Amino acid sequence: MAMMIIKNHVRSISLPSRSHPSTAAIEESLDKLLITMNTKTMASSSESVYSGLKGLEDLYDCTEDLLKMGPTQSVLSFNDERKKIQREFMEEMLDGSLRLMDICNVSRDLIVETHEHVLVLQSRARRRKDVDYSGYVGFRKNMRKEVKKLLGSLKNINVGLAMRERDHDQDGDVQFLAVIHTMRRVVSMTVSVLKSFLEFLSGRQNGKDIRSKLAMVLIMNKKFHDHDLIVKNELKSVDSAISGDSCSQEDLHKKLEDLEVLIGRFDQSLEGLFRGLIRTRASLLNIISQQMYM
């Protein structure tokens, strides 16, 4: 019943549907990632966020393949009929990739800093009973401020995408429109996954998240055991342990160990995403550079 309700709420990014044989593989990857993000088990929100980031790595592999295809390079090559639209689209993609790279880079910095603070807490907790948590608490406060800025940047990217898609010529070349639409879906999906990741970092819970609402309803109705539905956030778990008095040193050690493992997974996935963004940007620049010698 739970999964049925969730699946009924799976919805695509709000861009009109277009497809073409040349974009079939990447469209399939996009749809697969969308389903993963919407139907991932509620038992671990950290696992859901991690799966989204890993899915982006695969998505950018498909994106690179798409941009290396002859038909794709052909429809993105400037010609007199659609030169203005092509130029604007390429500038849009290059600007978007640069913004996403910046957000990804800052996110990785936050993860690295978090890891450093976790190591300090582990070291201090091993040496003495009374541990000074003020440094970590201050860092978490600053992290939330930085995350808020990054979320604002992501929102601006999505707003721009929606405006351009709505204003776009709907009667152009089918393959050209398919490539444009697909690339915009890639950017929009990246924004969506990074938004979930950043909200996880800040400890925010999306009030519109059907999974969170459903989890609470099922817990209240006692239809599932609590351990099957608890939404897991290792960062919030450590925050709660530090701010409360009921957590033992052993429990804190375990929570810090769990967080350290998660941080390593996030860092690896963000590095993979960053490399994917670089490759996509390089492919776009390569297509543009080819125009100069034609």
Automatic annotation (TrEMBL):
<dbReference type="InterPro" id="IPR004320">
    <property type="entry name" value="BPS1_pln"/>
</dbReference>
<protein>
    <submittedName>
        <fullName>Uncharacterized protein</fullName>
    </submittedName>
</protein>
<dbReference type="GO" id="GO:0048367">
    <property type="term" value="P:shoot system development"/>
</dbReference>
<dbReference type="Pfam" id="PF03087">
    <property type="entry name" value="BPS1"/>
</dbReference>
<dbReference type="GO" id="GO:0048364">
    <property type="term" value="P:root development"/>
</dbReference>
